[in-house]
Amino acid sequence: MKNLLYLQGLSCGGDTISLLNAEEPDLLTALKMLGISIAWHPSLSSEEGDDVLGICSDFLEGKKSLDLLLIEGAVSTAPMGTGRIHCFMERPFAEWVRDLASVAEYTLAVGTCAATGGIPASGTNPTKATGMQFHHGKNGGVLGEDYRSRAGLPVTNIPGCPAHPDWIIETLHLVTSGKLTADLLDYANRPRLFYTGLAHHGCTRNEFYEFKSSATDFGQMGCLFEFLGCRGTQCESDCNSRLWLGRTGSCTRGGYPCIACTSQDFPPQNSRFFTTETIGNIPKYLPFDVPKAWYIGIAGLSKMATPERLKVNSVSPHPVYAQRKEERGRK
Question: pTM, whole model, 2 decimals?
Answer without folding.
Answer: 0.92
